[in-house]
Amino acid sequence: MNNIDDISGILDGMASELAELLKQAGRDNPAMVGIHTGGVWIAERLHRKLGLGDPLGSLDISFYRDDFTRIGMNPVVRPSQLPFSIDDRHIILVDDVLHTGRTIRAAMNELFDYGRPASILLVALVERDGRELPIQANVVGVHTRLSALQHIKLLGPEPLALEIKQGS
Amino acid sequence: MSNASLQLDAHGRLKHFLCIEGLNRQLLSEILDTAESFTGVTEQTVKKVPLLRGKTIVNLFFEASTRTRTTFELAAKRLSADVLNINITQSSTVKGETLLDTLRNLEAMHVDMFVVRHNDSGAAHFIASHVAPHTSVINAGDGRHSHPTQALLDVFTIRRTKGPDFGRLRVAIVGDILHSRVARSQIHALNLLNTGDIRIVAPRTLVPAHAESLGVHVYHDLEAGIEGADVIIMLRLQHERMQGALLPSEHEYYELFGVTEEKLAVARPDVTIMHPGPINRGVEMDSEVADGSRSVILEQVTHGIAVRMAVMSMAMHHHKERKA
Prior knowledge:
- The complex is a heterodimer.
- Chain A is of the alpha/beta class.
- Chain A has helices spanning 7-25, 38-50, 68-71, 102-114, and strands at 31-35, 57-59, 90-98, 119-128, 139-144, 150-155, 161-166.
- Helices cover 29% and strands 27% of the residues of chain A.
- In chain A, helix 1 crosses helix 2 (38-50).
- The model of chain A has no long low-confidence stretch (mean pLDDT 91).
- By secondary structure, chain B is an alpha/beta fold.
- Chain B folds into two domains: 3-146 and 302-322, Aspartate/ornithine carbamoyltransferase (Rossmann fold, 3-Layer(aba) Sandwich), CATH 3.40.50; 148-298, 3-Layer(aba) Sandwich (Rossmann fold), CATH 3.40.50.
- Helices cover 34% and strands 14% of the residues of chain B.
- Chain B has eleven helices and nine strands.
- Chain B has helices at 3-6, 25-38, 66-78, 99-107, 123-128, 148-162, 181-192, 222-226, 250-257, 287-290, 297-316; strands at residues 56-61, 82-87, 113-118, 136-142, 170-174, 197-201, 217-219, 231-234, 272-274.
- Classes of the chains: A alpha/beta, B alpha/beta.
- At the A-B interface, helix 3 and helix 4 of A face helix 2 and helix 11 of B.
């Protein structure tokens, strides 16, 4: 596994990989959207590094989760904020940890309720095993394999740190 | 079982929503925060979220009310629930069906939530204590007792207009306090949020006995009552009150308690004007006040949808317990 203590170095690598990918694909003037909460922290840094024109958007996917009737409402749901029109835009969707893929499914559903983007790229700081849906990230900072009982969590916003916990 | 304990589950979360009494400040704030997050849904191209997809909500209205029913219906639809409107005054009671029979029939259709409006105090509570365990009941107004979602949207509107610190606010409620379920619920909600000074302003015939025990100051003179007020909430004067010798005439009420720009001079310059609607122009206030820049009467209507979305989604989540 990569050294997960050097998050700032990882982010530098992600930013240049993302810039190269956008260039190759000819996706001009993309807009970035972070998923609450950790995804927004990562997106803020990438947004700054890429110097994007539009302000950063944020999504709270609580109202789009597929497990609402099983685990109930999050105690704190922040309003989603997309300070630009989604229609025909190239969107960069950013999350901290890509695990089952369900969060990304919910986020894409929510994005489409705001409009019809031209394309969506997925960026994740950490990609781990345990996918339950056919969703993969275009840019990943750290690939890691964990047991089903282990959880990886991003702590922040300042400083950012990754923590691996043994679950029960 | 009291209303307060009936509406919460074992973890202190909403199961039904029947009255403001029995909520704690934390839960009230949680409802308002959730409502805040729903205000963004109207900015989406698709103005709905899939939260209550596949749930069935029945608006059970024993008393006519276009506005309240419409906002509940819209709130349910923006949560992607299926909604059925039943107006009982024109339906089964005419045929002699009892309330419980009506309820059992609807339950047999696997309804998940009832939104109840009834002219008897305690009706929503009665229904909540008789429904199947996994069915929620929301009170949309019962007799003179309670209209909790109206009170929520009022404090939500105040919070959005004046900020979260209610301790520094002077709020005057003007009008028929005696017959008003809205006023009772508002007073409870304002007290729960530690509002600095709650005043009720009304003719002596329209103030309940021992009103001070509700934690309010009572005024019988409009200008004394609204002096220095940050918020003035006017209540609708029901036409039928005119017949009970409680008031001489609408005109005299307007002369004494109708709010005009001139009388507002004693309130704070940034006073916020509220009314649950529908307004009697030229009775509770004149048009200049109702349509003026300090009026948030139409914002109240908009906020009513977000607040009802919050209450419905929070009460619906106790359903998970049967699946756990």
